[in-house]
Amino acid sequence: MDLFPPEQIARLRAPLERSWTLPPAAYTEPAVFREEAARIFRREWLCVARVDQLPNPGDYRCVELLDQRIVLTRDRHGRIHALSRICLHRAMPLVEGCGNATRLVCPYHNWTYELDGRLRSAPMMDGVDGFEPGACRLPALRTEIWEGFVFVNLDPECRPLVPRLTGLQARIGNYRFADLAVAATTEFDSPWNWKILVENFMEAYHHIGPHRESLQRLYPARDSFVEDNKGAPWALLRMPGRHEPGPQALRPLPGLTPEQQRELIAGCIFPTFLFAASGTLAVWYELLPAAHDRMTLRIHLLLPREIVPHLDDHARAALTESTRAIHLEDIPANTGPWRGLHAPLTTQGRLSRYEKAIWQLNQLWAERMLDPPDSGGWKNDPAGGTTSRETFF
Length: 393
Hints:
Elements: H1 6-13, H2 25-28, H3 30-41, E1 46-50, E2 59-65, E3 68-74, E4 80-84, E5 98-100, E6 104-105, E7 112-113, E8 119-121, E9 142-146, E10 149-153, H4 166-172, E11 180-190, H5 194-201, H6 215-218, E12 225-226, E13 234-239, H7 258-262, E14 264-269, E15 273-277, E16 282-291, E17 294-304, H8 313-341, H9 356-370
Antiparallel strand pairs: 1-10, 2-3, 2-5, 3-4, 6-7, 7-8, 9-10, 11-17, 12-13, 13-14, 14-15, 15-16, 16-17
């Protein structure tokens, strides 16, 4: 992109030891977000739900992906679909929110669709030449399920996601995310660029600042490290704990090693899927970017599926409040850089070795944003990502 001088691109694509952050314009320019929408959000896998949020046949859940309105459905056979929720007749949205229904019925003219998107009936369309309801169906998105998370892709020619996550799966498989369920959700309007939140989430360096009285005491920044992703589209931050598990309100997650029971992990599947887990619970940060300067954030607290139905309101409120408390500490770490990036004298900054995950994600961002759309190894490599680090430099 012409917004970035060659020296800025060289800095961000250098090896970690010599690397710099993204240029300020990567966050502040509307034109960059429009390009991200085309090159990233319309081509990459985006997490939109948990399967436990659609537990029963007939359940549906609406999602906004930029300007595309989606409805997730579970049909009577138990299959999950991701469909355009815009009626094929006069572009009326079929449904809003979430609920349960045997079919999707347009509120405008009562066109009726099965939960797999097939048009079942269209009243008073007799005599319309060549119109065959059975040949009509709502556009469907590619879907994949990984560890209980539902991912969709707006690109019908996209590569499968799950094979590219084998390295991540090997490291976090015994957390058994597929056996968890959403226990509580809290939402925040976030008037800043989406990458600021992703970067803050994926480094423990800032524990010494905003979290010095909370996370730093349990998970010191200096002990944190980032796994090598070999160019695959994920990053994993590990934060060993300096405490022994003691009496807790929640039972430890089953299957974890003693080391995992003490540590905190944070992960990202590029571009916006964020998760974290401790020895007793997990969280999913659902990011919904809307523009270069705003997004919605929903933080979902995940617990073992058998525990969730037995939580009372007091327990849910306490867990929600503890989750909110950490993010409230992070809000100044997002709003501050957002203001600072608009200052005329602001330039790229040097990355610390504790910000390796940011470097990894920056390489993925640069590969998609700065290279020709179908160049490089990432489009064709079945293993996912580039085949060597040199592709980045």
